[in-house]
Amino acid sequence: MRRKQTGFWLFILPALFAFVLVVLVPAVKGFYYSFTDWNGIGKNAVFVGISNYGKLLSDSRFWNSFLFTFVFALCSVICINAVGFGLAVLVTNKIKGANLARTVFFMPNLIGGIVLGYIWQTLLNGLLSKWGQPLLALSAKNGFIGMLIVLTWQLAGYMMIIYIAQLESIPESYLEAAKIDGATAFQTFLKIKLPLVAPAFTIGLFLSISDSFKMFDQNLSLTAGGPANSTEMIALNIYNTAFKESKLGQAQAKAVVFLIVVVVISVTQLILSKRKEVEM
To answer: Comparing C-alpha atoms, which of 170, 192, 169 is closest to residue 180?
Structure first.
């Protein structure tokens, strides 16, 4: 028993040390800096209390970014999971080339966000320009749709893998019983497959909500928040506040508020989704 415990701690301590060093310590320091006027350069950070949080109430640019991010996350979560689930149903129907299709659909997830953003920026602005102007820069609507396409294209394949795993874990006896009872393919899908895939929806929704709210790379490379900051998401707004305006204290206050909002939404989604799950 002691040897097993020793081996367990030998394996877990490096990862635990890295987690504390890279995640917990910066998080605690960041929370402290949200109560200061630190500019990110000087060593001394003057404590200013909750004034940074008070400034957020009148920061219209931040709240516009917040609203834009919320609407974008809502749309992207629906699109990502709908496309991912549709692809999973397609490649689990024993069609020719299903394994190749799985690989092709998953590949966009392997491309980095910055690279992916610039590729699609070139594609959309180069091939779909209007009146000689870049398409994405014409309006917030164009930027919104462009980012939605890119994020859905990138993450749908990853969600597909999650849904495939759940679909293939459904006992064959359930499907055979439905067939014997005379259920059509659509009835089998609606009454058996869909309810039993609920645990995968819980995971898929949680991951896509997190990724949609935290999107930064694609936002920076596709639109950079333009035109006139109309497509600036919260992560990019925090970045600009910290590194362009040199207001690290205010940026940290925004990050703390952002973290709380994402945690509340994610936990609420998990609780509601868990209630809909059906055990096999």
So the answer is: 192
CA 113 to mean position of chain CA atoms: 12
Per-residue pLDDT of the chain (280 residues; tens, 9 = 90+): 667 777 788 888 889 999 999 989 998 998 999 999 988 787 778 888 899 999 998 999 999 999 999 999 999 999 999 999 999 999 988 778 888 889 899 999 988 888 888 888 888 777 655 555 666 666 788 889 889 999 999 999 999 999 999 998 888 888 888 888 888 888 888 888 888 898 999 999 999 999 999 999 999 988 888 888 889 999 999 999 999 888 999 999 999 999 999 999 999 998 988 877 666 5
Of residues 179, 161, 72, 69, the one with CA closest to residue 109: 161
| C-alpha Rg value of the chain to the nearest Å | 23
How far does CA 108 lie from the centroid of its chain? Answer: 15
The beta strands (E) that lie in 127-182 are given as none
Q: Which of 248, 232, 213, 234 is nearest to 52 (CA)?
A: 248
How far apart, in whole angstroms, are the C-alpha atoms of residue 216 and residue 223? 11
Which helix (H) or strand (E) is 161 found in, with range? helix 140-168
Contact 52, 253 (CB under 8 A): yes
Amino acid present at 132: G
Among the listed residues 161, 261, 271, 134, the one whose alpha carbon sits nearest the alpha carbon of residue 206: 271
Handedness of CA 33, 35, 40, 46 (dihedral sign): negative
201 and 272 Cβ atoms separated by less than 8 Å: no
Residue 223: closest CA among 241, 210, 236: 236
Tell me the pTM.
Answer: 0.88
